[in-house]
Amino acid sequence: MLKYAFRRILGMIPMLFLISIIVFTLAKLMPGDSLSGEIDPRNTNPQYIQEMREKLGYNDPLPQQYFRWIGNFVQGDFGKSTRFKIEVSEVLSERLPNTIMLGLTSIIITYILAFFMGTYSGRKPYTFGDNLIGGLNYLGLSIPSFVAGVFAIFLFSFTLGWFPSNGSVDIGTTEGTLEYWLSRFHHVLLPALVLGLLSTASYTQFLRNDIIENSRKDFVRTARAKGTPERKIYNVHILRNSVIPLITFLGFDLVAIISGAIITETIFTYPGLGQLFLQSVGTRDYPVLMTLTMLFSFLTLVGNLIADILYGVVDPRIRLD
Amino acid sequence: MSKKKSLLKEAPLLEVKNLETAFDIDGTYYNAVDNVSFKVKPRQIVGVVGESGCGKSVMSLSIMQLLPKGIGKVKSGEIIFDGISLEKMTEGQINKIRGKDVSMIFQEPMTSLNPVFTIGYQLQEVLFNHTKISKREARLKSIALLKSVGISRPEKIVDEYPHQLSGGMRQRVMIAIAIACQPKLLIADEPTTALDVTVQAQILELLKEIQEVNDMSVILITHDLGVVAEMCDEVIVMYAGKIVERTDVDTLFYNPKHPYTTLLLGAVPKMDEEEERLSSIKGIVPSLTNMPKVGCRFANRCPKAMPECFTTTPMLADVDQGHEVACLLYETSKPREGVK
Ligand SMILES: Nc1ncnc2c1ncn2[C@@H]1O[C@H](COP(=O)(O)OP(=O)(O)OP(=O)(O)O)[C@@H](O)[C@H]1O
Ligand code: SF4
Ligand SMILES: [Mg+2]
């Protein structure tokens, strides 16, 4: 298992290298550069701009620029944000905990909801409860998250006033206190629900269908022939088979959450990496943008690896070596 | 032989009376087992033969109350096991009997075990279901059981998963599960069909041995008349959901009465063409939705069919003492006045 993980991680290196070339090329292909953010606005003398370009290395051949960037990158120097005028790593580390909090909350809510709804529906298919859950899920699947987000803000924040509509914490709470954490949780709940909407709906339907399918399998008949009670057959024999794929989805969730966070965080003006990403596109903050893209790509690869490793852990039929 | 004869006087362990089992196909129930009655006595091995699709598995699943829920159901009839009616039982009541007094081995050893639990877990489960036993004892007992069904290195196998075992070994595990609580009746539904020839013989040998040691009754379902000759005391021949002939094994082989039985026997000699044997009779078993409403169900394939075979339904009745046949060639099968 360890050997397998190690080999896979080694295999990521050329992958990431390729991605970095693409990211760099795309950044260079995009219109404009971040020079406008770097120069002193009081001095727009073309001569001066030309000097700055030369000084910042924007006139060097592309491969040279690339290797300078990647060389610094692997040493942990991601450059300076042209917008915030501070180190990219500093910008990211301010936002990262927020996104982690959002992602974790979203995953936990998703799995709890999907587990209970899915097992209920799978055990009692075609009943009123199942149809109700099924109907809600198809609604969840068909509504795009930005619509759901706006609607949730309108209903739960503006109309009912249950949840705040923006930010990650109330201003004026002291960091570390219970009040602070409660406020953070209060802020994260609504975006987390919206972010997990799609996965909740699809995992519920997946679990339901998998339980129904497994309940028709021969091994269920064997368990019944042994005199095993119905309840145990569902809770142990069938469920243990049906949660396997669900657990492996965890790895892919990582990917889904990152792409989902870009939209959800923006709608909820939640200061996380997703919101930062869109903002950086708007302000042409290429150092931040490139670092984020690299980070997201890296997490995608890690997510896939996690999915595969989890498969090996939970399914005795899969051997990783 | 004398031992077998003495069996005949004993009260039956299992008595199936007028069993009708139906499947829901597009909203209508069709009988897959139609008016089947027979008895199994203690320590007896009863063979059930017939082509594919003639209702052998459905009949055995009906006895175990294991029909697929919502699709198949026992429409009428009685299943009396050891003096109690199984067909009226609730799920909770039948669970006390399944695996303990009546066990079953299935046709499909490759899929009958749960892929994500160890052999030991699945074997111990039946022990925990029916006996008060500690974890340690259960483990020791499961190792002993694996050993008794001829699995070498049982201490190791007990912690392995089904996919690590061959088909023959999985079927041995299924047998171990089935006999763990020393049932009075074992239903073996084509226990060897899915296995290769050399393994088949070993498994049958094992079943016979266990039957003798445990003094249990066996319903042995098979395609293979050679197996019947080897193993069984009594034989039930089924065709299209009905019993067409039932008698002791010697009579069946030396004095078969039903044309279907004769054809089955005639098809036996080709020892090497295992699969071909029963299908060498021309035509196919009618499907559930295609079953003739009146007349003999075998009529369109029967070499001895007469015009009345298409209009009169033969009854299963004794032609000789202990030899039941349902064929209009025999007076006894013709409907009498007042009987439908
Ligand atoms: N779940 C089901 N739904 C509908 N029809 C079924 C179902 N199971 C069995 N049948 C039908 O019942 C009839 C009897 O099937 P059964 O499985 O008992 O045959 P069998 O004698 O065991 O055949 P084989 O030798 O192939 O095992 C067949 O016509 C089959 O199509
Ligand atoms: S009743 Fe007629 S068709 Fe049926 S088996 Fe006898 S002879 Fe053949
Ligand atoms: Mg069958």
Automatic annotation (TrEMBL), chain A:
Transmembrane segments: 9-27, 99-117, 138-163, 188-207, 243-268, 288-314
Annotated source species: Neobacillus kokaensis
Keyword hit for Transmembrane helix: yes
Topology versus the membrane: Multi-pass membrane protein
Stretches assigned to the ABC transmembrane type-1 domain: 96-307
Superkingdom per UniProt: Bacteria
Family of this protein: Belongs to the binding-protein-dependent transport system permease family.
Keywords: Cell membrane, Membrane, Transmembrane, Transmembrane helix, Transport
Pfam families: BPD_transp_1 (PF00528), BPD_transp_1_N (PF19300)
Compartment(s): Cell membrane
Name this protein carries in UniProt: ABC transporter permease
Annotated Gene3D superfamilies: MetI-like
TrEMBL record, chain B:
Pfam family, one: ABC_tran
Molecular-function GO term, any one: ATP binding
Subcellular location: Cell membrane
Domain ABC transporter: 14-265
Listed Gene3D superfamilies: P-loop containing nucleotide triphosphate hydrolases
Topology in the lipid bilayer: Peripheral membrane protein
Alphabetical list of InterPro entries matching this protein: AAA+_ATPase, ABC_Ni/Peptide_Import, ABC_transporter-like_ATP-bd, ABC_transporter-like_CS, Oligopep_ABC_C, P-loop_NTPase
Keywords: ATP-binding, Cell membrane, Membrane, Nucleotide-binding, Transport
Similarity-based family: Belongs to the ABC transporter superfamily.
Protein name: ABC transporter ATP-binding protein
Protein species of origin: Neobacillus kokaensis
